[in-house]
């Protein structure tokens, strides 16, 4: 006797029809969803390019899900450039995709600021003598800093023949750690600094552009020129907040081997820090004070603190 179960052909056909119908509905739903997604992407892009992830300023960028008080958080964010209110992906501690992309965009901009030199057009517009320290590449400049404190015979000849002798202050401009900072802010800063120096009657000699600069090479050049002080304007080390910040280092009686605590520094010169024009005017006043009191760095700051305490 055959014990195999009977095949119900009608049930099999019914099941097949149901599966085909469900697959057709799924295919239609997927097709509709793809069309809607494509339409949304088309609205968010321009001529096929992905929308700019920086179209929202960092101080307005907020990705926390279901915040208790979003308005208060945004008010707090406006007081800092720190990366706050980023949220997390799901229940994990991973960054959201947009945050991940923004962070890598910040890092890419920082890398470009350090590795890319200022353009030839920018140097031509400055119209200053160009002096180069010993490194032959950015990589050598970053990995062998002692070379940046030295000049070869050719560049030392530029110092001796093209720079004015015995100025009150020798102005030196260099990329430092951000060429972008110079290209963005130097024009406004230099205009204000020059106007301030002229109003104080300060002889700033022949300003020069220094390729692969270190503070030590500025001391060397200024001492060879016979300057009473040196003012170095450099691109500052970049960070997540900005790659457009400049720093100013003023040293009285510059010479090879001078201690670092003899330098007076202005840092954070950029649009969201100390504005370029304001910093240029302030630097001129500081140089005037350095020359008048014949000191800089810790000694100058101690005198300023003493004046403030006596005025209270």
TrEMBL record:
Entry-linked Pfam families: EutC
Cross-referenced InterPro entries: EutC, EutC_C, EutC_N
E.C. numbers: 4.3.1.7
A Gene Ontology term for the protein's cellular component: ethanolamine ammonia-lyase complex
GO molecular function (one): ethanolamine ammonia-lyase activity
Keywords: Bacterial microcompartment, Cobalamin, Cobalt, Lyase
Enzyme class per UniProt: lyase
The keyword Lyase belongs to this UniProt entry's keyword annotation: yes
Identification of the protein by name: Ethanolamine ammonia-lyase light chain
Protein's organism: bioreactor metagenome
Organism taxonomic ancestry: unclassified sequences, metagenomes, ecological metagenomes
């Amino acid at each position: 006797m055959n014990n195999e179960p009977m095949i119900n052909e009608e049930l099999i056909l019914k099941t097949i029809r149901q599966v085909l119908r469900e697959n057709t509905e799924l295919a239609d739903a997927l097709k509709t969803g793809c069309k809607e997604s494509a339409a949304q992407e088309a609205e968010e892009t321009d001529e096929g390019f992905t929308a700019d992830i920086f179209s929202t300023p960092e101080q307005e960028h907020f990705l926390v899900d279901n915040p208790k008080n979003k308005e208060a958080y945004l008010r707090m964010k406006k007081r800092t450039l720190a990366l706050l209110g980023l949220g997390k992906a799901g229940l994990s501690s991973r960054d959201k995709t947009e945050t991940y992309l923004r962070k890598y965009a910040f890092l890419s901009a920082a890398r470009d600021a350090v590795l890319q030199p200022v353009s030839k057009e920018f140097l031509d517009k400055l119209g200053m003598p160009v002096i180069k320290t010993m490194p032959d590449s950015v990589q050598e400049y970053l990995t062998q800093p002692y070379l940046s404190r030295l000049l070869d015979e050719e560049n030392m000849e530029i110092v001796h023949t093209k720079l004015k002798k015995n100025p009150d202050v020798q102005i030196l401009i260099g990329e430092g750690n951000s060429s972008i900072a110079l290209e963005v802010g130097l024009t406004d800063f230099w205009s204000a600094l020059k106007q301030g120096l002229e109003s104080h009657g300060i002889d700033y000699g022949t300003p020069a552009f220094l390729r692969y600069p270190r503070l030590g090479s500025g001391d060397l050049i200024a001492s060879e020129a016979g300057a009473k002080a040196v003012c170095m304007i450099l691109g500052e080390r970049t960070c997540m907040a900005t790659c457009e910040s400049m720093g100013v280092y003023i040293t009285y009686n510059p010479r090879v081997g001078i201690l670092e605590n003899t330098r007076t520094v202005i840092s954070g010169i950029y649009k969201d820090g100390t504005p370029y024009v304001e910093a240029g005017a302030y630097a001129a006043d500081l140089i005037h004070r350095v020359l008048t009191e014949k000191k800089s760095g810790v000694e100058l700051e101690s005198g300023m603190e003493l004046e403030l305490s006596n005025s209270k």
